UniProtKB/TrEMBL annotation, chains A, B:
It comes from Cyprinus carpio carpio. One of its GO terms (molecular function) is N-acetylglucosamine kinase activity. Residues 7-280 form the ATPase BadF/BadG/BcrA/BcrD type domain. Its EC number is 2.7.1.59. It comes from the Eukaryota. This is N-acetyl-D-glucosamine kinase. InterPro entries: ATPase_BadF (IPR002731), ATPase_NBD (IPR043129), NAGK-like (IPR039758). Belongs to the eukaryotic-type N-acetylglucosamine kinase family. Pfam families: BcrAD_BadFG.
Length: 344, 344
């Protein structure tokens, strides 16, 4: 058996693990639940990761007691140095047969590593949201990624919250809703199984689960697709919010990233991007406004999506960290779904 | 010994208990920590209440094994029917010597019962915020009071959050701060004992304590008093937010409440009101705008503050619920600190 490298993509709702050969071939993939340690705690996080990787070993016909060469993890919530060091220390101690070496990066960087080795902007909108610019020289500039208490603008959590808050504010006569709330209120009562606003309190506090709360976004996407104006409104606002994250890092984008064939490459990660058509007007408007106000070298941008889990980029970075180089076919890993050239 | 009635004021940070004689005299008062069951859980809530009331009995020279006639509790978070019934059932079962009967109302209604039996508007801004209109006929209309995940606008939590979010957004280049962030950033690092924004994550998630988070508001008040523009800005915004709660219930205010000597009586409860001077411009502006846009019978309003704990109003309502009537001297229970007559 040749060298095997593991990778993990850890999201706020779902996770994935992948095993890759030295030639860059995928040997096995497995799925698991949320492994964001801020949301589920360190124990659940590392148990979940171990479980996925061990199942992948068995699926690939490997001995589960033989550690992989490296495990590179692309984790939502994988930013704070002290916290990720603790994760690695705990994994090493508790699961000595898991891997020979460990590497943790953020979900944004893992996604970028899956798509390109040249850089670009990653905008994540899944359960939470985050934006990261990676320049060709490897330098990074972030915006967001602070979680639902301090950001997550444009994420599924944020969209769900915005819609529900609109219902609360309308009931309170505190803010007038821009559109009829009937559909959203009814969808909320059905999704959360409540009969009034008071019933929402346990979902917001005692039994709060970010992933479940954010899941309401799917119902709003359905409403938006079916023509409900308030659902469409919250997605337009989400598009605007995600666009603003890109505008926030624009001043730090290296000149070379603007000049490729795609224009500025924006890698869009997370399930909310499936509702691109609902977000498009808000998103494109914010970018056009920014371009018009002083970014004359910003003439085109393209939105890309991953065809592979960012666990693959995690595996690549984990291998790199262990001194190995995994050859990835980047062009096979991405898809372009939207491109815009500004009027000159 | 004559009949003794107990009252409790339960806040998001502090709580109080009071014992009152049938003549309305205060026999003893005690203090305790947060008893908001949404924040500390049912067990801590009822243990805290029992502890305060039993200490009050001893302080008043009463036998702690003799139940008081009634216990009326004015609780932040005391709105949801099913939840308060569970609190009462648990208290009755676990502490049979505490009281013969139980009654729970919200902090807003308990405060109003302490100030008046004629009604008015209560605006609470402590750890959280809430607004309740009580009309002379006893009917109630609320705005807010949904907690930090869905409201709390204008509260200490909200003010702290707004200031900190301004620092995060400035760092991210996501939103430009209206004023220099230096003071707020430094005060945040000192108060939360962190050296960067990443260090705030445990305070927002794993170790989040609403009361501690909201306590940062005191540092912002100090900054505002010392002339820091961003601190002053967040309090002006808080004044605006609290004013908007009043405007939200204005359409439901009974005509008679406008026509007393004080004009519309607004009872202001909670520690944030101590920073009234910092909030005044935002608050008065919102009310003046609302008055100018169609409330011609709204000619004057007065802001009142309680000189007694709303545990007293809780005791009154608990006694009432048990068939007794406690005589309270309302005029001795309130203070007017601001009054405004609109230009005709």
């Amino acid at each position: 058996m040749g060298a095997v490298y593991g990778g993990v993509e850890g999201g706020g709702t779902h996770s994935k693990a992948v095993l890759v050969s030295a030639e860059g071939h995928i040997l096995a993939e497995t799925d698991g639940p949320c492994t964001n340690h801020w949301l589920v705690g360190v124990d659940n996080c590392i148990n979940g990761i171990n479980d996925m990787v061990q199942r992948a070993k068995i699926k690939a016909g490997l001995d589960p007691d033989t550690p992989v060469c490296s495990l590179g993890m692309s984790l939502s919530g994988g930013e704070q140095k002290a916290a990720i060091q603790k994760l690695i220390d705990d994994m090493r101690e508790r699961y000595p047969k898991l891997s020979q070496s460990y590497f943790i990066t953020t979900d944004a960087i893992g996604a970028m590593a899956t798509a390109s080795d040249y850089g670009g902007i990653v905008v994540i909108s899944g359960t939470g949201s985050n934006c990261k610019l990676v320049n060709p020289d490897g330098t990074q500039v972030g915006c967001g990624g602070w979680g639902h208490m301090m950001g997550d603008e444009g994420s599924a959590y944020w969209i769900s919250h915005l819609a529900i808050k609109t219902v609360f504010d309308a009931r309170d006569n505190l803010v007038t809703s821009p559109h009829d709330i009937t559909y959203v209120k009814k969808a909320m009562e059905e999704y959360f199984q409540v009969s009034d606003l008071m019933g929402m309190l346990p979902h917001l506090y005692r039994n709060f689960q970010k992933s479940h709360f954010a899941g309401f976004c799917r119902k709003l996407a359905e409403g938006g697709d079916a023509g409900d104006a308030l659902c469409q409104h919250v997605f337009t606002e989400a598009g605007r919010a995600l666009g603003r994250h890109i505008v926030a890092v624009l001043p730090k984008v290296h000149q070379d990233l603007f000049s490729g064939e795609l224009g500025l490459p924006v890698l869009c990660v997370g399930s909310v991007w499936r509702s691109w058509e609902l977000m498009k007007s808000g998103f494109t408007q914010v970018l056009s406004e920014a371009q018009a106000h002083g970014y004359s070298h910003f003439q085109k941008y393209s939105l890309l999506t991953l065809r592979q889990s960012s666990a693959l980029g995690g595996a690549k970075m984990g291998a790199q960290n262990a001194g190995a180089s995994l050859p990835l076919d980047y062009s096979a890993n991405v898809n372009m779904f939207f491109s815009h050239t500004f009027n000159q």
